[in-house]
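Example 3.2
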Amino acid sequence: MDDKDTVILQYVAEEQSLTKAAEKLYMTQPALTYRIQQMEREFGVPLIVKHTKGTYLTPEGEALASFAKKMRDEMAAMKDYLLNMRSHVKGTLRLGVASYYGLYKLPPLLRMFKDLYPEVQFHVTCALSSEILDLLTEQEIHIGIVRGNYQWQEAKELLHDEPICLISREPIHLDRLPELPHIHYSEPKSKTVRASASTLGNTIREWWHEHYQVPPNIAMQVDAYETCKEMVKQGLGYSIVPGVFVSPEDGLYSLELKQKNGEPIRRNTWMLYRNQTRELAIVDRFVDFMTSEHTRT
């Protein structure tokens, strides 16, 4: 059993479909089936069972997949340790990044870090912030960058914050808001995301209930802030979005939300990591680099 076999079991467990697992592995389904049969012969137990609704790991398969993942993680940690024993910045930095940060902020930062340390490689996962927290908890990544405030007991660095803005095509008075069509951002559903509400969604709801006695007039629900903005540009309603999505070039009316006491509502972006991982030179240098770059801006 090798490292690829571990990934095979992982994808079969996640996708519950040999066809989808084969697509992720860039294999044909017959080749995937043959490799699973070889593992079954090697260990002498059935590893998968097929049902009309999909393909699942047997209890033996789940136990083997869990063991193999643990061994793979330990081997990756050992490789990191050996590469960094002499403080030589080399190897693969595993990052988990909130999707919008990955789109708007991360690419030039990685390019700059790569210029400083050419022997570094990146493994980047872009996902919802709550999913990034799960990856960090499971130690599948070195560093997580999340948007919003999440419970994390180890090291965290505030990279930046941004205002939460009400946007519309024309200026509007806040007293009229409940009667106007609201283009509402609704977080995409994910089978892996924990069943907790979006921290930004909670913040906006708290702001609304502080100011109004009736619910908003939701005309549209969309799953991307860019879509919210484009709908607003067409005069179809107003929306509430993080400030990173609004620029003067959009030509929109923008108003930063404030609590009744006048305090502005901000959204934080945090860099999270385990204290122990700073023993790795690649992690230590990246943390210092990110802190320095965001302090500068």
